[in-house]
Design goal:
Shape of chain A: globular
CATH topology of the largest domain in chain A: D-Maltodextrin-Binding Protein, domain 2
CATH superfamily of the largest domain in chain A: Periplasmic binding protein-like II
Structural class of chain B: mainly alpha
CATH architecture of the domain at 100-329 in chain B: Orthogonal Bundle
Order of helices and strands of chain B: HHHHHHHHHHHHHHH
Shape of chain B: globular
Structural class of chain A: alpha+beta
Strand content of chain B: under 5%
Largest sheet of chain B: none
Number of helices of chain B: 15
Helix content of chain B: 55-70%
Number of strands of chain B: 0
Largest sheet of chain A: 10 strands, mixed
Distance between the termini of chain A: 36 Å
Oligomer: heterodimer
CATH architecture of the largest domain in chain A: 3-Layer(aba) Sandwich
Radius of gyration of chain A: 22 Å
CATH class of the largest domain in chain A: Alpha Beta
Order of helices and strands of chain A: HEHEHEHEHHEEEHHHHHEHEEHHEHHEHH
Largest interface: A-B, 44 and 29 residues
CATH class of the domain at 100-329 in chain B: Mainly Alpha
Number of strands of chain A: 12
CATH topology of the domain at 100-329 in chain B: MetI-like fold
Chain lengths: 444, 330
């Protein structure tokens, strides 16, 4: 798979927790929370500096795409500037990451610091594999006003902050520039009418199937974007019930299926096919995440392409988004020095928000997005309207619900095995049962 | 030992205590001999208990709980997990039954092919012709590759829209829009085909060893009796291969029922989750959703099915006349 930053399984990714043994571990330095029941920060008062003995930190993440080298560079910089801290970065695919981290933390073999997606934070926190880090947020002077509200709230679980936001990333549309201009189009479509026009012009220009509709990843991200555009939502606001089989959801999925029935897309698009076809010029356009920017540059250097925000198909502007966060892993045997050093590390990278933009991501801080250096980057085009960024509710276990519910329904509908309504209704039943089980399991 | 005193002991039935000391090998060596087998077996038994029996018992214990190993609470649910598997109203019930069906379909389709084709290949390879060793290596070669390698390779070949296979079918004037990885039954044809290509070398090598064990005199005698090629195959080759055949059938059934990598990589369980096999679903439930209780319960249900099937195969091979293979899957 040529997955860049992301992979379908990261929605699946759940995580872990400590057993009873880990619960009574180190305390102190916390800003809130019942004393003695959870690790709260740890490592004493956070001063922003580390002056103790030499320590080695393990930092795990899933930056396997074009983003990995940029993180490695930042880590190397940090190591040079901090001779008494040595950070070792380990990168594994997100899908394996969310599977491995909980087990590793559980058995005391986990890393010290990690990265995690916003929609996985609640799950990781509920399983107690990550620690609250309100004190770092305070030290970093993170202000709600400097963030997209959903990103700010997404890092909070049960009134405590578990993630330091690093970036946001969203779905986008990619088009083959040569094919667009050959068909007499000067820009990617911005709305439904333009989209339909573009498709029909490209078709009459000889491109039989200009826009391929995937049946798996990132099909559900397209669906999320469309249902939000249509005024609906995949889940209720509190994340307690599935609402993706609403009228708005059925219309959203019907639009996707109509692209196939109407011939914009061929039938039976298998995993990654639409993206591979785009790279080789077999189709003219595709929807994918902004994390593909560096992948396209690296693996299809000759391809001329342009990227833009997802077109507005329905009444509202909306696009599926997610974010990367720094997290502090729970330790079986907490070491104050390591915890302190880890905080220094998180603090350091977080302040390099703008440099991280080169990885293809959008900085989470409003101030970094306003910076002139960011506006030159490719992804700045989709970041002009962060109001339209929508995020999944932060409920423990929601990734699994999406995988077993929504993704199955979309696969069945886009492979023309079931009508959109049938598929969504059946999946909503499964999703609601899973949500119910998760409530019992996580006590939420 | 108490019975020794009350028995009327004849000269040949002396108890160990009464036995006359040592005409050589009788006395002490036989006495010590009682423990020798166990001592010799101990290293294996130790491993067997630690890594086979203990995990099985622990697995049964796990399957009786709602067991998420990342959460402190693992509430007892008795047979609840097993009930859920067969309850069409539960979250896992319909998916589990569908996964078991997928495994059954794959097994029924692949086992006959994997038993018959390698036998033909082995007989060809057993004949004397120049370049024989090269052909033996060629047929065995795919088996050397890991499932990830063959999976990715075939995913690109089989892709319905940009794959090589459909491209060549189109050149030949055949239908070139078959969705090999995203629709059934085409996906089953693809998965079975890939698996046969991948693993037939293994079965062929076992057959080949069996064929080389059949005494050439038997064939000579058969020829003298006027047996043609088919009669020789029926009456010399097949009976001579019976133990090998039984081994191949059972191991192939088990291997097919454990199919995971091919659908995980090539079809990703598509369409919907029609080609998601039991093992794939168990792995998802246990390792991705951390629902170890249900995953363990599913594993035991699958194990019981496989035990029954293996028993059935052994019964069939015990009869004098081997039944045709389709009896196996019925």
């Amino acid at each position: 798979m040529t997955r860049s930053d992301y992979s379908r399984r990261n929605f699946l990714g759940l995580s872990a927790a400590v057993g009873a043994a880990g619960l009574t571990a180190a305390c102190g330095g916390g800003t809130s929370g019942p004393p003695g029941t959870e690790q709260q920060g740890g490592g004493g008062e956070f001063t922003g500096k580390y002056e103790g003995p030499n320590v080695a930190l393990a930092f795990w993440n899933g930056f396997t795409g074009g983003d990995g080298p940029y993180m490695k560079k930042l880590v190397d910089q940090f190591n040079t500037e901090h001779p008494n801290i040595k950070v070792t970065m380990t990168t594994i695919r997100w899908q394996d990451y969310y599977q491995k981290v909980p087990a590793a933390v559980q058995s005391g073999q986990g890393p010290d610091v990690g990265a995690a997606h916003q929609d996985n934070l609640a799950t990781l926190a509920a399983r107690r594999s990550i620690q609250p880090l309100d004190d770092i947020a305070k030290e970093l002077k993170l202000e709600e006003s400097d963030f997209i509200p959903a990103v700010w709230k997404g890092g909070i679980y049960q009134d405590k902050r578990y993630g330091i936001p690093l970036d946001v990333h969203s779905l986008a549309q990619y088009w083959n520039s040569d094919q667009l201009s050959k068909a007499g189009l000067d820009a990617p479509p911005a709305n439904r009418q333009e989209f339909e026009q573009a498709v029909s012009k490209l078709k009459s220009g000889g491109q039989a199937n200009p826009f391929w509709m995937p049946s798996l990843w990132p099909a559900h991200l397209i669906f999320f974007s469309l249902i939000w555009q249509n005024g609906g939502a995949p889940y209720s606001e509190d994340g307690q019930s599935a609402t993706f089989n609403s009228q708005e959801g059925v219309e959203a999925l019907t639009w996707m299926v109509d692209q196939i029935k109407g011939g914009a897309s061929p039938k039976n698009v298998a995993i990654d096919t639409q993206y591979n076809a785009f790279k080789t010029g077999r189709n003219a356009g595709t929807f994918d995440g902004i994390w593909q920017i560096n992948d396209l540059k690296a693996t299809a250097p000759k391809l001329k392409w342009e990227m833009a925000a997802v077109p507005q198909i329905f009444d509202e502007k909306a696009v599926w988004s997610n974010g990367h966060n720094f997290v502090l892993m729970t330790q079986r045997k907490p070491d104050d020095n390591k915890t302190q050093a880890a905080k220094v590390f998180i603090n350091y990278i977080s302040e390099k928000s703008a440099e991280w933009g080169n990885s293809g991501m959008i900085p989470a801080r409003n101030s970094a997005r306003a910076d002139a250096s960011f506006s030159k980057l490719e992804q700045a085009k989709v970041a002009t309207d962060v109001e339209s960024f929508r995020f999944l509710p932060a409920v423990p276990g929601i990734g699994d619900v999406t995988f077993q519910g929504i993704e199955q329904a979309i696969s069945k509908a886009t492979l023309l095995q079931a009508s959109p309504k049938e598929a969504l209704d059946a999946s909503a039943g499964v999703a609601n049962k899973l949500l119910e089980e998760n409530r019992k399991k996580f006590g939420g | 030992m108490a019975s020794v005193d009350t028995r009327s002991a004849g000269p040949d039935t002396l108890g160990p205590a009464e036995r006359a000391p040592a005409p050589g090998r009788r006395g002490p060596s036989r006495h010590g001999g009682r423990w020798v087998p166990y001592v010799l077996l101990a290293p294996y038994l130790l491993l067997f208990f630690a890594f086979v029996l203990a995990p099985i018992v622990y697995g049964i214990w796990v399957s009786l709980h709602i067991w998420d190993f990342t959460l402190p609470n693992k509430p007892w649910t008795g047979l609840g997990n097993y009930r859920d598997l067969f309850d069409s109203e539960s979250v896992v019930g319909p998916d589990f039954i569908r996964a078991m069906k997928a495994t059954a379909i794959f097994t029924i389709l692949s086992v006959p092919l994997l038993v018959v084709i390698p036998l033909g290949v082995a007989m060809l390879m057993n004949a004397k012709f120049p370049g024989r060793n090269l052909f033996r290596a060629v047929y065995f070669a795919p088996y050397v590759l890991g499932v990830a390698v063959i999976g990715v390779l075939w995913r690109y070949i089989l892709d319905g829209n940009i794959g090589l296979l459909n491209h060549y079918l189109g050149i030949l004037g055949l239908p070139d829009d078959i969705a090999w990885t995203t629709s059934t039954p085409a996906a089953w044809v693809a998965l079975v085909g890939v698996t046969v290509w991948w693993t037939l070398g293994f079965n062929a090598v076992i057959y080949l060893a069996g064929l080389q064990d059949i005494s050439p005199e038997l064939y000579e005698a058969a020829i003298i009796d006027g047996a043609g090629p088919w009669a020789r195959f029926r009456n010399v080759t097949l009976p001579g291969l019976r133990p090998v055949l039984q081994f191949v059938v059972i191991t192939t059934i088990i291997a097919s029922a454990n199919m995971f990598g091919q659908s995980y990589i090539i079809t990703q369980g598509q369409p919907g989750n029609e080609t998601r096999t039991a093992i794939m679903y168990i792995a998802e439930t246990g390792l991705k959703n951390f629902d170890m209780g249900r995953a363990a319960a599913m594993s035991f249900v699958l194990t019981v099915c496989l035990l029954l099937l293996s028993g059935l195969v052994m019964l069939l091979f015990r009869e004098r006349k081997p039944k045709p293979l389709k009896g196996v899957s019925a």
